[in-house]
Amino acid sequence: MAWTAPPVVRTVEVASLGSVPERRMLEGWLQWHRETLMVKCAGLESADLAITTVEPSTLSLLGLVRHMAEIERWWFRRSFAGEALGDVFTGPEDGDEGLDGVEAADAARAFESFRTEVRLSDAAAAGHDLDETFRSGGGVPLSLRWVYVVMIQEYARHNGHADLLRERTDGATGDTG
Question: What confidence score (pLDDT) does residue 92 get?
């Protein structure tokens, strides 16, 4: 039996984020976007998650899940927390942060890796002030606040891609679970 992406229960209502403190707002929007990517995948089998539907692009929903696991790891754990970690999916055959090489990818493993990286990213940021800084690879000081903002934009951009991929896969549209 083929693996199927699980259903998603929303934990964040966007309307509730309108007048909350900044930290809660940033965490809420990031969580909402994380859930949106999972909503776009929910109910699809491994093979459907791996197909490319917007030619000539090689982008797939499974590639986006893998990519966002890499990006979570990169910004929160490797960059902000300074953890010495390797990549989750990239390697000689996949030099694009998890986006490529999904034809034979294990979807269940990719989703578990995504959930793990989200949990560990949240743990890396917990207890740190939004103004706390680190140096980028280019030596530029960046704050934890900046990491939240860049992650929200990264998800927003890729969730737009996920909208098109899902609609082309089975006609499903919308962003509720």
Answer: 46
